[in-house]
């Protein structure tokens, strides 16, 4: 088994490379989660709104039954949908998600920030879910820096990650700084820019120097920043390729060349509530 890097947050050890399941139909989710665990991934990302939590749980059980993993070797994340942010609704979804998965998740995230109900109510409920044993840890998704800091101020427990869009075409410096100052972490969604990195001349040139693909270089660029990356694919060969990133290293110059690809219109999935604004950069 390949040694794979982890990030330590609040006494927890989170594998830096995970497997995403957004848009995977239940059949593909079950098949690919089981394949990912066979390949060596030890971190799986899902959400209530993906409508595949039960299939993800089945995929994990398939891998356990095949002897590829044990439950405690897998980091499992799911998310509370924005329609469930009132106290009782949040706890009800946390119970439903755990029941659908058939496992207590390791991490439960608030999927997107929302003005109402108040952050105080929602963070209180998220902490209650942790206190009631419905998740091992809690965190956020898609929170800009100011709201990330505000939410941590209202949360008894450490918010162990903020899962946001991040890939070579976005500058994430303010949020990376906030995560560092809060003792938290960043998880990159759409780490491969939904496949757009495949044709990038700069990333491909760097890849040729290492005998690696553009996807492998991009994932390596993320984990070398201590950012958790959760690529998604329906193809076993691509899942294998994306896992094969632990035997090379990008130089400081190569890291800087990829950072320089960030551009103002690089965002792919902007579903942020208009009550909030993304961090301003450069
Ligand atoms: N918290 C949130 O709000 C949020 C939002 C979006 C996503 N996420 C999470 O983040 C995960 C990853 O994000 P994502 O699914 O948007 O994007 P991604 O991993 O950047 O890209 C996945 C897409 O790129 C293609 N692809 C994968 N590897 C490739 C390669 N080497 N070359 C070319 N194309 C490639 C895949 O196609 P094939 O299937 O054909 O390989 C798939 O269509 C999601 O699955 C989900 O778990 C979270």
UniProtKB/TrEMBL annotation:
Keyword NADP: yes
GO biological process, one term: methylglyoxal catabolic process
Annotated site (Lowers pKa of active site Tyr): 79
Highest taxon, organism lineage: Bacteria
Active site: 50 (proton donor)
Coiled-coil annotated residue ranges, if any: none
Keywords carried by this UniProt record: NADP, Oxidoreductase
GO MF assignments: methylglyoxal reductase (NADPH) (acetol producing) activity
Signal peptide (residue range): none
Chain residues that bind substrate: 111
Pfam family, one: Aldo_ket_red
NADP-dependent oxidoreductase domain location: 17-261
Family as reported in the entry's similarity comment: Belongs to the aldo/keto reductase family.
Name the UniProt record assigns to this protein: Aldo/keto reductase
């Amino acid at each position: 088994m390949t040694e794979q890097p982890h990030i330590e947050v609040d006494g927890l050890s989170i594998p830096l490379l995970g497997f995403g399941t957004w848009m995977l139909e239940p059949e593909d989710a079950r098949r690919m989660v089981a394949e990912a665990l066979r390949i060596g991934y030890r971190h799986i990302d899902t959400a209530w709104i993906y409508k595949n939590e039960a299939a993800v749980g089945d995929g994990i059980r398939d891998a356990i039954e095949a002897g590829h993993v044990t439950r405690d070797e897998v980091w499992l994340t799911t998310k509370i949908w924005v329609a469930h942010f009132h106290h009782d609704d949040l706890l009800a979804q946390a119970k439903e998600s755990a029941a659908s998965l058939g496992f207590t998740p390791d991490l439960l995230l608030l999927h997107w920030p929302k003005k109402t109900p108040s952050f105080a109510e929602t963070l209180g409920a998220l902490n209650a879910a942790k206190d009631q044993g419905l998740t091992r840890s809690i965190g956020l998704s898609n929170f800009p820096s100011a709201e990330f800091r505000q939410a941590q101020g209202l949360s008894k427990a450490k918010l162990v990650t903020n899962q946001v869009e991040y890939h070579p075409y976005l500058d994430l410096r303010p949020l990376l700084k906030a995560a560092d100052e809060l003792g938290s972490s960043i998880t990159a969604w759409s780490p491969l820019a939904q496949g757009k990195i495949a044709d990038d001349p700069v990333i491909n040139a760097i890849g040729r120097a290492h005998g690696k693909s553009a996807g492998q270089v991009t994932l390596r660029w993320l984990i070398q920043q201590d950012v958790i990356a959760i690529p998604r694919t329906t193809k076993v060969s691509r899942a294998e390729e994306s896992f094969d990133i632990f035997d090379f290293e990008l130089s400081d110059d190569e890291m800087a060349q990829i950072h320089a690809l960030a551009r103002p219109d690089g965002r792919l999935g902007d579903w942020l509530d208009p009550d909030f604004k993304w961090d301003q950069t450069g």
